[in-house]
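Weekly structure sync, notes
Attendees: PL (lead), two postdocs, one rotation student
Agenda item 3: pending single-chain targets
PL asked that the sequence for the first pending target be pasted directly into the notes so everyone works from the same version. It is reproduced below exactly as submitted, 208 residues in total.
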Amino acid sequence: MFFSKQMVSRESSLQGRTEPLEIDKFHYINQMPMRPPFEEGSELIILAMGCFWGAERRFWQQKGVSVTAAVYVGGYTPNPTYEEACSGLTGHTEGVMVVYNPTTTNLNRLLKVFWESHDPTQGMRQGNDVGTQYRSGVYCKNKEQLQIALDSKSAAQRLLKARGYGSITTDVELVSDYYYAEGYHQQYLAKNPNGYCGLRGTGIQCEG
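Predicted structure, written out during the meeting:
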């Protein structure tokens, strides 16, 4: 399979499809609904930190998180398949939709987990996983989240610099569209406990 390290343009991206990919109705871990509407008062953010299998597990383990899902985000192609996303021709990265209760946790705590659980300085890769579909990203749903994420990025950059790392390459931006990955990707490491997980942190300790 070809792994591109160059972002595709919208004009050159794949057409995709109007119908979403099939997934189970309920979360494998806690039986919460996988699609909106979510619990009243919940907030949603999408975090990308390499292969979404390990990343999703990291977040479903967090207190205050009610729903997680493997998604494609940050690109152009509607409802892409895994093969299409891996081709680099959709512009998407592998992300995790995180639905959380702001009375139980907050975005800074989730971003602490995010920055500490991967290396956000690697560009279009994460460890041995190479390609635009593995780039780091924080995809926000509103301007308040965006400002929190940008402040968090600046704080993480200072910690990384002190350890000799380079500049953070993480996308931090507003996004309106994201697309669920195929059903077999959802809660993959709960269904396959010995499956692949490439998460590797840098050793930084963020405030949260």
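Discussion points:
- The mean pLDDT is 97.
- Residues 43-189 form a domain with the Peptide Methionine Sulfoxide Reductase; Chain A fold (CATH 3.30.1060.10).
Action: rotation student to compare against the earlier draft before next sync.
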